[in-house]
Amino acid sequence: TGGTAPPTDRTNTDHHPTPADAAFVSLRGLAKSFHGQRVFEGIDLDVRAGTVTAVIGPSGGGKSTLLRCVNRLETPDAGTVTVGGVRYPADGPLDRARRTALNRTVGMVFQSFNLFPHLTAERNITLAQQRALKRPRAEAVQRSRELLDRVGLLERADAHPHTLSGGQQQRVAIARALALDPEVLLFDEPTSALDPELALDVLAVMRSLAAEGRTMIVVTHETRFAEEVSEQVVVMADGGIVEAGTPRAVLHDPAHPRARRFLASVR
Ligand code: ADP
Ligand code: MG
């Protein structure tokens, strides 16, 4: 496929429209090791468009690595990732058209916010749009302000990250991710670094995203949140998905001993 495609042109990839009821994100046989140490293998997962999948499990179980294989911050060793009808095989680096398509489709929110410390909240959000989407500055500023308003932080538009609480920084990071108009959002323990009270504001924003039918994969230990918003919950442990199903089944009646042990520890 041609490496000269402009950022918004997906015609050079094998893109097929996603039927309304089909999986928007599909993982098949996904495997990843570091230095010969298996993190996971044989991961199969389908995330339907407009639904939330919660990923839970013990520390070191490969949850972050799984998300990073979806947006290709890590290269899987085997398997395929299909997002929005575009197939991203594991073998080798992505060509430029697929890299661009993936970056345009998938947004990510990290545990540690990852805001630029020397930029204001608004500038953090605006810069991302100018760089990634080549959006004109005035339009980007307008969008930043709409999104800051949405996450309840319009009055802090000119604040630098260190003057904001952790919860406020994370809401800016969510606004920044939304500003790039992703079709699926990945959250990696977005509230784990926050005091419980500050986590509530972040979870409220995430609930509103779920309610408007966003496709989301959320790694979280907030089992109540997972129960409220997710269509399915998966438990990652021991190199794979040990349990998957409805929140009710997985959170209240897990079959696998490893899942049972983990759930007992977070309640
Ligand atoms: P979780 O998010 O469930 O806590 P991770 O995906 O962060 O788990 O880590 C899974 C395993 O992979 C851990 O043993 C971790 O040490 C290892 N790991 C993760 N990233 C790397 C890396 N870049 N290099 C080497 N090992 C890594
Ligand atoms: Mg992690």
UniProtKB/TrEMBL annotation:
Membrane topology type: Peripheral membrane protein
Domain of life: Bacteria
Single GO term (MF): ATP binding
Keyword entries, A-Z: ATP-binding, Cell membrane, Membrane, Nucleotide-binding, Transport
Gene Ontology terms: cellular component: plasma membrane
Segments forming domain ABC transporter: 25-263
Compositionally biased spans, kind Low complexity: 1-8
Keyword check for Repeat: no
Disordered: annotated segments: 1-19
Pfam families noted in UniProt: ABC_tran
Keyword check for Repeat: no
Annotated SMART domains: AAA (SM00382)
Protein name per the record: Amino acid ABC transporter ATP-binding protein
